[in-house]
Write a structure and sequence with these properties.
Elements lengths: L1 H29 L5 H23 L6 H30 L10 H23 L5 H26 L5 H26 L7 H30 L9 H31 L2
The chain binds fe (ii) ion (2 copies).
One fe (ii) ion binds next to helix 1, helix 4 and helix 8.
């Protein structure tokens, strides 16, 4: 049980600390030259999460659970601070105090939601109580489907408008994922009666099909951007970042699928 706690804590921190580090970079790139204080703060968070990432890779899975529990607390604090920074930036943008800066409000809100998610995962791990599976299935899907819908919108808006075909594709993904978000919210509102194995299985299967196709689209976009074959203002690292987040969601969906199949069916 302790080994599992250590393994899961390290997995979460390795994935999300790199994500938080990259958010710091994306935010910094979107500030104006004169926003020196904000640039300084973003660089500060970059260094913090780079160090957390380094430490998380230095720990082995046989590390002392008490040490990892302490590490989780430390990372929780860092995630809380970057969350507060992101919300502060959102406030500045929405009150028109950063005219001409290049971060969309939805993007800043989005990265703050990811920080909040990370922080909650750490709190859950340390409290040793995970949500009951049927609730986790719905809540994780509501969270990640919205994340995926946002990604499609960012890609659509950061591609050059002359890339008409790709912009159309991104817009279609945005629409599909908005529909999936609403479906997930409907299923959530029908709780607990909606939490039957057949309904949850169908929900997970259907979402998986859409996430796979979005993941493939992101992979194509990432490769095209890397090879400088399309016109956009998407940073290559951002293209890879959203691809990795789709992969992460697919791992979670696979895990749910596995649990829902139960021990009997998974043997076949
Ligand atoms: Fe992200
Ligand atoms: Fe994201």
């Amino acid at each position: 049980m302790s080994d599992l706690f250590v393994a899961r804590s390290l997995e979460e921190i390795r994935f999300w600390s790199r994500i938080m580090k990259e958010h710091s970079l994306f935010l910094r790139l979107g500030f104006r030259c004169e926003d020196t204080q904000l640039i300084h703060e973003a660089n500060h968070f970059y260094a913090i999460f780079e160090e957390i990432e380094r430490k998380s890779h230095a720990f082995q899975t046989n590390a002392d659970p008490q040490t990892i529990k302490q590490f989780n607390v430390e990372v929780y604090t860092a995630a809380s601070h970057i969350w507060a920074f992101k919300r502060k930036v959102l406030g500045l943008i929405l009150s028109c105090q950063l005219p001409g800066a290049n971060n969309f409000p939805l993007l800043v809100d989005h990265v703050s939601r990811e920080a909040n998610y990370f922080r909650n995962r750490l709190a859950e791990l340390n409290a040793g109580r995970l949500e009951p599976l049927p609730d986790a299935i719905i809540d994780e899907n509501v969270f990640f489907l919205k994340i995926m819908a946002d990604h499609a919108k960012f890609i659509g808006h950061l591609l050059d408008p002359s890339e008409r075909k790709l912009v159309d594709q991104a817009r279609n993904f945005s629409h599909d994922f908005d529909q999936l978000v609403f479906q997930a919210i409907d299923l959530s509102s029908m709780r607990p009666q909606s939490q039957t194995v057949p309904l949850l299985s169908q929900f997970v299967d259907q979402n998986k099909v859409s996430v796979k196709s979005l993941r493939d689209f992101k992979k194509t976009a990432r490769d095209l951007i890397n090879d400088c074959r399309i016109k956009s203002i998407i940073h290559p690292l951002l293209a890879d970042h959203v691809f990795r987040e789709a992969e992460h969601f697919l791992v979670i969906l696979d895990m749910f699928e596995h649990f829902l199949q139960g021990p009997k069916r998974s043997e076949s």
